[in-house]
Write a structure and sequence with these properties.
- By secondary structure, this protein is an all-alpha fold.
- It contains ten helices and no strands.
- It has one domain.
- About 45% of the residues are buried.
Length: about 250
Amino acid sequence: MALDTQTLAVLVVLFASTFVRATFGFGDALLAMPLLAMLLGLRAATPLVALVAGVIAVSLLVAHWREVQYRSAWRLVLSSALGIPLGLVFLKGVHETATTLLLGAGILAYAVYGLLGPRTLALKSERAAFPFGLLAGILGGAYNANGPAVVIYGTLRRWPPATFRATLQGYFLLTNALIMGGHFAAGLWTRPVLGLFLRALPVVVLAVLVGERAHRAIPRGKFDRAILVLLAAVAVLLLVRTVPRALP
């Protein structure tokens, strides 16, 4: 059956965002959300991206569950569970522009510091996972943007690449389940959204396989720098998309 132009565009976006997630462990939602929101609207894009993210997490964890840093993961998940309901309030409110500006500016500042500064900051205790997880839950419930806070936590913990990517998937799997439950309760799982999700599954699985190969090709010493560059790109994307809406 032939695909209409909109559906084809949605599948292209989901392939690209899934490839980024499979390669680096995060970044799919922040790439997909602005594009899919333009194509489908925010209330359709949000649950679709969450459903796809769950499939990605399961696919990666099947092969890499032994690398998960469980002591940090459960703390991140627990605190995120408290933040997700607050995020759902933002989704139904009028706070998107201000929140996105703050998020973009904060991510960019951290990425620039990591790339240009001495990188002396480090977290030695798992207790720091609680505030990072709470912030991640708020952003995840509202915009499927729980990744940056957890990514910054992982870089500050100095996790090696395999641990970094696997732990993020363990976190994303559980928090996505909570986010999807919130979306279902809010009535966001509509027939068109579920139809697009089913059509996207083969594309998502293919992108995961390609991303796995790309991940293995990145030298270990360059992985941290690649993460910071990706964070900076995400921040710039957020700011470019949001600043015009904030201007009078």
